[in-house]
Amino acid sequence: MNLSMNAPALAFRSVTAGYKSRPVLDGVDFTIAEGEFVSIIGPNGSGKSTLLRTATGLIRPTRGSVGLFGREISSLKPRERASLIGVVPQKLESPMAFTVAEIVMIGRSGPRGRWGIPDSRDHDSAERAMIYTNVLDLKDRLFNELSAGEQQRAALAMALAQEPRIIMLDESIAHLDINHSQEVLRILMKLNREEKITVLLVSHDLNLAAQIADRLLMVDAGKLVSNGSPGEVMQEELLSRVYGCELRVRKDPYGGHPVVTGTLDAILRRATSRQCLHVIGGGGSGIELFRRLLIEGFQVTSGVLNRLDSDAEAARALDIPCVLEQPFSAIGADSFEAARLMVAGADGLVVGPVPFGPGNVVNLELAAEALKAGKPVWMAADIARRDYTLDHAAARMAEQLKSGGAVEWRGIQELMALLQHDVINRQA
Amino acid sequence: MSLKQACASGGDGCRPFPPTGSTNRGKALLLLASVPLLLGVSLLLGPSGLGLPDTSTSIGQAILSLRFGRFFMGLLVGAALSSSGTVFQAILRNPLAEPYVLGVSGGAGLGAALSILVGGSMLGAIGLPATSFAFAVITLMAVYGIASQGGASPSVYSLILSGVIVSAICSSFIMFLVSTADIAGMHTVVWWMLGNLQPGSASEQVVSLLIISGAIGALWRLVPALNVLTLGREMAHYQGLNARAVTLSSLLLATLLAATAVSMGGMIGFVGLIVPHVMRALFGPDHRWLVPASAIGGGAFLVLCDAIARSLMAPIEIPVGVVTALCGGPFFLIILRKKMSHAWIA
Question: What is the per-residue burial (b if ≥16 Cβ within 10 Å, else e) of B120-136?
Fold first, then answer.
């Protein structure tokens, strides 16, 4: 085969394609370089699967053309095509009782001779594929008796046995249990990084796609609406428009990739109580508090927090009114004054298990203000252990607060119980 | 010893695929050995029990050649029906698929009935199988056409549903033909419909032999493709198969086999449905084994049933179609119950 090494692995040139009465893809244009890991995302019915079928030559474009490693896909013989593309379907269904080894061997039916008798090369290739996907132990088991994850790995082994240069997967991971999907993803990453196999993953799971792919192609109503790195494609506005519902994007704290969530918490927030609690958080101590208090139906405010602090990010994501100070700076007079006003409007104050240093110890003054105004204060116990001020200012403050009527809590369950008790009494 | 070492030392043990092959070989030999055994039984078995007819008389010779003819017909018809059923089951990925369900046998039967009554004999030995085949193909096309209303390739359910409908129409036509035929014609057609392996003329037998062995041979060349097609047409495409061409040619070959069998032996049910299942239970789903095993197994089964049919209530002959169902049913049920998990998981 005369395949150019520099040609893109897959090239869609203004492709319009679809079924008899119903065009699905409309002028789709993109290229995928060899060795890339690309994921196609989009809502149900947007044309993802049609795109895949067109890319594999199952559907011919009515306009435009599809190139595969520099060749027109329509000009490839079926066997040549199978030696370039391996496809893992959504679910491989084998009505008959084939063993895993037999299923994987079917992946060699293209390269095999007319009589279909496998030679040692076929055996080697099938075995390598099974080792790679960790199904060698299952080779004599019946395919239909495997778990979904094992079946998916066996299907991947079958595609690998074809020794393709590009592997295409049709939403075949997202429905697996997380341990199985992680294993399949690991195998795919390995194939992509070590064997330089190009991967095209059609996915309805945005987060999974963003986590693993180098590049995302977003399809909506048969059109390519976005093409770029996960960070570029996963924009709140675009996603919300394409999926027709309000979505939020934030960065994964560990991987740094974008993570999409719905806004169900906004519904939870519209709960019963009009009681407003001010939370003193910071350094991640407030996230769980915010969430639980919102679920319990409180209105929540927070501050003073430093910008970029994880609690500040969480507060932003949860639409919690919040007083912010510059990153890594001590709390200044202006922001303290703003927070004081905020506490004045609250019905009570919760101090989270925050570490205190010279920069944020002033936040405890807010608690003192609240006590002075006759508002209840719930304070996470053992402040002394989290006190990093030079003169133990925080610990001393805490003692004063305690003697002034602040209630100590250990663990979020205890806090919730205290709140229930106190707030309900107060309302009564 | 690690896997790599095992491979390097050249032992066959590292091959992930030997088990089915080696055990299947033994079973295949047993199956093959049953054929000469059955030949012996068929030649010896007569209305008066076991015994070779006196070959010094011309009557004895005639009896012997008749018995051989029955054996030969049974083998051919059984092989054709059974391998046809195997192919239909693979292509349609459905354990219920067989020539009867798809209306192919019905169409072939209508063609054969027309040929017998109206007179296709003017075409010579090829007349009957040719008319049967033509009608069977028309039926299959009609079934496929009805099933694919709406454009897309038809689902298995719609195929079988329209197969049953078309089959019913064909049998009404046959009944109409029978009711309007004269006594002699009616007798021939009814007797033929019940299934009967009375050998035709020598030239008819030769033509049938050529058609059936040719078609089974051609199918055997398609077996790797059949294996792939059991995963569905889309997967077959991804595996580098011209799925449309393979589907079409194997459907035509299976139809040809069924039509020829029907034109030779009438409406013999059960063989095309159950023998492939039993062979799948014994040999596994690999069509490289399955197609030849079904052919031999189907032939042997029908020969056995015919031997029972003509000797059990001798001198009265029971239609062989009755025997296939009555004798085969319980026997096959036992095997299927035991080994169903190795045959078909639906």
Answer: beeeebbbbbbbbbebb
- B249 in contact with A at a CB cutoff of 8 Å? no
Say how many domains are in chain B: 1
Instruction: Inform me whether the pLDDT recorded for A15 exceeds 60.
Output: yes
Q: Cα–Cα distance between B261 and B144 in angstroms, integer? A: 21
Burial code of A151-160, b = ≥16 C-beta within 10 A, e = fewer?
bbbbbbbbbb
User: How does strand A166-170 pair with strand A198-202?
Assistant: parallel
The answer to whether A1 contacts chain B (CB < 8 Å) is no
Report the residue count for chain A.
428
Which superfamily, per CATH, for A10-242? P-loop containing nucleotide triphosphate hydrolases (3.40.50.300)
CB contact under 8 A, A109 and B240: yes
Reply yes or no on whether the pLDDT at B78 is more than 90: yes
* Lowest pLDDT segment from A157-161, B41-45, B143-147, B271-275: B41-45
Q: How confident is the model at residue A352 (pLDDT cuts 50, 70, 90)?
A: very high
User: B239 — contact with chain A (CB < 8 Å)?
Assistant: yes
Q: Which CATH number fits domain A264-427: 3.40.449.10, 3.50.50.60, 3.40.1190.20, 3.40.50.720?
A: 3.40.50.720
Query: What is the mean predicted confidence (pLDDT) over A234-261?
Result: 83
With an 8 Å Cβ cutoff, are A78 and B14 in contact?
no
For residue B299, the domain's CATH number is 1.10.3470.10
Higher pLDDT, B314 or A34: A34
> Tens digit of pLDDT for each residue in B24-49?
778 888 888 888 888 878 777 776 66
List residues bridging with A88 in a β-sheet.
A169
Collapsed DSSP state (helix, strand, coil) of residue A32:
strand
For residue A377, pLDDT over 90 is answered with yes
Token pair belonging to B226: 């059949």
What's at B282, amino acid-wise?
A: L
